[in-house]
Automatic annotation (TrEMBL):
<dbReference type="GO" id="GO:0006508">
    <property type="term" value="P:proteolysis"/>
</dbReference>
<comment type="similarity">
    <text>Belongs to the peptidase C69 family.</text>
</comment>
<keyword id="KW-0378">Hydrolase</keyword>
<dbReference type="InterPro" id="IPR018247">
    <property type="entry name" value="EF_Hand_1_Ca_BS"/>
</dbReference>
<keyword id="KW-0645">Protease</keyword>
<dbReference type="InterPro" id="IPR047804">
    <property type="entry name" value="C69_dipept_A-like"/>
</dbReference>
<dbReference type="InterPro" id="IPR005322">
    <property type="entry name" value="Peptidase_C69"/>
</dbReference>
<protein>
    <recommendedName>
        <fullName>Dipeptidase</fullName>
        <ecNumber>3.4.-.-</ecNumber>
    </recommendedName>
</protein>
<keyword id="KW-0224">Dipeptidase</keyword>
<dbReference type="Pfam" id="PF03577">
    <property type="entry name" value="Peptidase_C69"/>
</dbReference>
<dbReference type="GO" id="GO:0070004">
    <property type="term" value="F:cysteine-type exopeptidase activity"/>
</dbReference>
<dbReference type="GO" id="GO:0016805">
    <property type="term" value="F:dipeptidase activity"/>
</dbReference>
Amino acid sequence: MNKRIHGSCTTILVGKKASIDGSTIISRNDDGHEALDPQRFVVVNPDEQPQNYRAVISGVEVKLPDNPLRYTSMPNSILTNGIWPAAGINSENVAMSATETITTNSRILGIDPYVENGIGEEDIVTLVLPYIHSAREGVLRMGELLEEYGTYEPNGIAFSDKEEVWWLETIGGHHWAAVRIPDDAYVVAPNRMNIDHFDFNSDDTLCSADLKELIEKYHLNPDYDGYNFRHIFGSASIKDTVYNNPRTWYGQKYFNPEIEHDPMDQDLPFICHADKKISIEDVKFVLSSHFENTEYDPYGNGTEDQKKLFRPIGINRNHNVHILQIRNDVPAEIAGIHWLAYGANTFNTVVPFYANVNDTPDVYKNATGTFDLNNMYWLSCTTALLGDTDYDLYADLRNTFELEAMGAYRHIQNEADQNFATQSDPVKYLEAANEKLAHESFTRQTKLLGEMVTLGSAHMKLRYNLND
């Protein structure tokens, strides 16, 4: 089977009392094994949603319910391996990000093996997001699909609405468990089994009906007390110590600088509480980060071995970063904000697109597999590539660009929010606001690239001091 398991993403979840404005936030770097994989930002309207879905990779066929909701989506541009929608917000202001590839162990796979013709990351958003009206309902639908069709890979999936944030992890081929993230908490989740302590009796957990019985029957619990799902179903490998755990460590170090942990620690906590309220800018910084101000920064002053030891969060294999925000201080029609950027995150900015629309701006929608600087995906990737050649030279330009661009986007958004109530055609109004945001973003990203070319040209090795 031509499966493509990403194994590369990083997720951040934020409860409504932990965010600066009372919104719920689910976010993820959608990374891949390839450095380039063009992405599109689209809206799937109900008449475009299939009724009989067939996966490209596994061939599984799923009959879908009637009356799907409209939703934003981020499919691949090249559909050889299927749609891979990544994430979106539906017309009921329910958000979903799928998926974070996670880890498992041989004990559970010996009991509940993967299903070759099951569902996977290619399929999940399409099968779930158009049919759910709350985050909890998303967990339950996802669980039903896993139990009926099985999966061929281990995944973590995030759901949110204006009140709740949920995190679901698949277990073996057919089992699953989910935790409601406390309102005052945050999570940084890399490519490993992340759920640790699990309370089967809590109203804030959901799982396969036979999961506890399965643990007991097959003697899966290595701990004397309680149920730690990372210990029971996950991994604690050498790869985790350099590929996964350091990303959680750095995110938690940023949100809780007062807490000292080892970046290789296998038991970094799942649920955390920050020492201040978390903003969109905070989430974007962590999802773009490369261990700044530590010896592990690939652009830093550590030894070559230190700089190469850990896998950074921001990496050349970032294809998009999405921050899905459901706001609680505005009308429902403008509550869902699909923040989005393309390419390696170190030299891009997220743009706050309204989700309650029927279409998206062309410059974010029409990427193809052919290089084209008139498209935001390819423009972002080009900027990141040039920036990587001399990070210290371009960092100040990047910092100024990010500060000024985010200020401009927020100004456009604030004006659009304030004038929304007077609009006779709300959807067209929000589509126009999104076009204005896209134009601002594309103009600023183009200007940044031009400034980098101008600055870098004076520092080329191919030069000589005499002007004659």
